[in-house]
Amino acid sequence: MFQQTIVIKPPYSFQRLLHRLEFHPDPQLRIERESNTLHRAFRVGGQPVLVSLRFDGSVEEPLLHINTHAALTPARQAELLKLIRHSFSTDVDLAPLYGHMAENERLRLLAERFRGLRFLLDSDLFGSMVRTILGQQVNLAFAAALTDRLLTLAGDVLEDEQGNRYLAFPTAEAVARLEIPQLRELQFSQRKAEYIIDFARAVVDGKVDLERLQSMTDDEVIACLTPLRGIGRWSVECLLMFGMGRPDLLPAADIGLRNGIQLVYGIDEKLSEAQIRSIGEAWAPYRSYVSLYIWEAVGAMRRGEWQTDI
DNA sequence: GGCCAGGCTAGCA
DNA sequence: TGCTAGCATGGC
């Protein structure tokens, strides 16, 4: 058993995270609303560990209580804490972002409306890349269904004392052992099946060194991964944002972001990728977070939770 | 039934 | 270099 409390850099809005999770389901998370707690399995030292995360305090004084039933060595404890800090973006300083967004009326309203919203990052790069590939072109609900099926097929299953089941994301080795027909049965397209198995085998073979990506610039990571079949620029940009937490990415090919920019900026005509990048230049060096807030805005507008007349 | 989803590849000019 | 058909499926 291991317990620890993390002081999160304010502001942090757990309610915004929960709200986002309603529309961006994560098959790995179990949400316990009444106690502000998330449960999920993290892979620590290669082994899946069940972790409870209880959010406490307030948006301006946020705390996170971590609890595991399994005993962990000090090294594993440190590894888990690092994973959690990364996943929940607990150390990101939003003040410079908000200062930047305050200079533009449209962005200022976004920052105000979604104050405390942060990225929930993937806890491993392999899983992040696979989820991104599964998310190509299809809607988010179907992408989540495919992820769930892959987890059930190849992931590690943990169970708590209440009988709740948790799935740890499969390792590259486990996905590399899969064959295409197994995934086709689960409604994966031929291409998605090929792409993720090929990627897993490249990781296992050492043709792709995920650890080495950490020391590369964004452009170097893009240049390194886009030669792989099934991985285009959008996918690497998503890996950099949602897997590595890099702050200044703009996935201009993203249909949701494109729609969001049109809504937020009140533009009627369809924007080209070049136009999106041009608009986004003003958001540097915080393009990832502005993108997140725009994604959130387009969802809120579509659901009728928010409207703005700017 | 048509169109759209947090795209990518291969083929072609 | 730039454009486009085809891919597979679910939801509205």
Describe what is shown at a glance.
The protein is 48% helix and 14% strand. It has helices at residues 14-23, 74-87, 95-101, 105-113, 125-135, 140-154, 172-176, 180-184, 190-205, 210-213, 218-225, 233-243, 255-265, 273-280, 287-302, and strands at residues 2-7, 30-32, 37-44, 47-57, 62-68, 156-159, 165-168.
Kindly describe this structure:
The protein is an alpha+beta fold and 310 residues long. It is 48% helix and 14% strand. The strands form two sheets. The protein has a five-stranded antiparallel β-sheet with strand order 1-5-4-3-2. It has a two-stranded antiparallel ribbon with strand order 6-7. Helix 5 (125-135) crosses helix 12 (233-243). The chain is globular. The chain starts with a strand and ends in an 8-residue tail after the last helix. The mean pLDDT is 94. The structure holds a DNA duplex (13 and 12 nucleotides).
